[in-house]
């Protein structure tokens, strides 16, 4: 009897660990998709689409919307995901380290850069959204020399 | 006469450095939803612009301030626009009118600082007048 209870207990633990691992494995792609969607909507100057990736209660929501409205007027830049690593999560938030490269149109004078940052995600209506970003480092990329005439 | 002219570029260089430290863009806060953040953004953008004026990579001290409450692609775009001169007209030339190469360089650095400062404030949603 004791052996049976112990066996059932171990089985329950193993199942729980397996379920947690499976949930973790599903979380990383879901969060990466949020970032990729944010970048893709930025690249096609889709303000509504970009804002849909940000939690409406985030303290960064209004400043980001104001900045994007300005940027979409006369800025021609492309953002791409360089690296994504899930750091962890609890019941409310998830944290990932993300590296994003932003490049401008050649000759536009834009300072191409790579931003290394920690992102905080929070769920809204069952979907993960961007909540906050803390920059760890910025690399200003060397500009290409203008082509000789 | 020649000695007097030689002194002027040095004085202009010193004046230019001092004026850069004091200058800030004029921001119209009327009806702006960002009005409450203008002082904070001014200080953060000043630090960022001073780093840009140095000509090197952004210093460690402005990392956290660099994106100023922006999240996602907007942050990198704001940095690139603030530290470059994208969408804000042609590069500054030596507008010193032949007084001296040093004055021209000081003028360029000063204007680069002002441009970066103004761009940074605009990227954060403020209406910059000058």
Considering the chains and any ligands shown, give keywords for the structure.
heterodimer; A: 149 residues; alpha+beta; four-stranded antiparallel β-sheet; 34% strand; elongated; B: 130 residues; mainly alpha; two-stranded antiparallel ribbon; 4 helices; 2 strands; globular; disordered N terminus
Number of helices of chain B: 4
Distance between the termini of chain A: 88 Å
Tell me the strand order in the biggest sheet of chain A.
1-2-3-4
Report the span from N to C terminus of chain B: 37 Å
How many helices of chain A?
3
SSE order of chain A, one letter for each helix or strand:
HHHEEEE
Unreliably modeled segments of chain B: 1-18, 55-65, 87-106
Q: How many strands appear in the DSSP assignment of chain A?
A: 4
Question: How would you describe this protein?
Answer:
- The complex is a heterodimer of chains A (149) and B (130).
- Chain A is α+β, with helices and mostly antiparallel strands.
- Chain A is built from three helices and four strands, in the order H-H-H-E-E-E-E.
- Chain A has a four-stranded antiparallel β-sheet with strand order 1-2-3-4, covered by helices on one side.
- By secondary structure, chain B is mostly helical.
- Chain B is built from four helices and two strands; from the N terminus they run αβαααβ.
- A two-stranded antiparallel ribbon of chain B has the order 1-2.
- The N and C termini of chain B lie far apart (37 Å).
- Residues 1-18, 55-65 and 87-106 of chain B have low confidence and may be disordered.
